[in-house]
Amino acid sequence: MASFSISKKPRLYLSTQALQLCFLISFCSILPFSSSSIHDLLVSRGLPAGLLPKEVKSYTLSENGTLEVFLDGPCLTKYENRVFFDSVVRANLTYGSLIGVVGLTQEELFLWLPVKDIIVDDPKSGLILFDIGVAHKQLSLSLFEDPPDCKSQGMLKNHVRKEKGFEALR
Hints:
By secondary structure, this protein is α+β, with helices and mostly antiparallel strands. It has 4 helices and 10 strands, in the order ααββββββββββαα. It has helices at 9-28, 38-44, 153-164, 166-169; strands spanning 56-61, 66-71, 75-78, 82-94, 97-108, 111-114, 117-119, 127-131, 136-140, 151-152. Strands 1, 2, 3, 4, 5, 6, 7, 8, 9 and 10 form a 10-stranded antiparallel sheet that branches. A hairpin with a 4-residue loop joins strand 8 (127-131) and strand 9 (136-140). The longest helix is centred in the N-terminal third of the chain and has 20 residues, at 9-28. The N and C termini lie far apart (99 Å).
């Protein structure tokens, strides 16, 4: 007569594997994406690729839509006006918008104002809306077709100093 016994160890082993798989899936959801660029991600979410500079080294996108973009360092570029990117830019990414932006400021009439939201309501309009707190500014989407080059803060300070003659005062 044959007897069979079922061990409880395999169940524990399977439960451990299932737990490890769940951990791996949740961990991978916050890792930097490597299969596509941040610019491809923006386009897939209804935003222009040129909202962020070429100098992005990595980014993370969590399941709840929180986007963190890591640049080589703080830098300055120009669309219609000058724009300053911190080394990390954060926002909530939804289709056609970046809401609650942190780490991005825009120069307006000699003042640096934080960009709070970036919205493309209707791509057919050809306009993108920047909420800078005290005002909403509409710009042409064509300004953001290609990712701009962004100059590091140190390079810009040296360049401005030489232009204004401050280098001679040192």
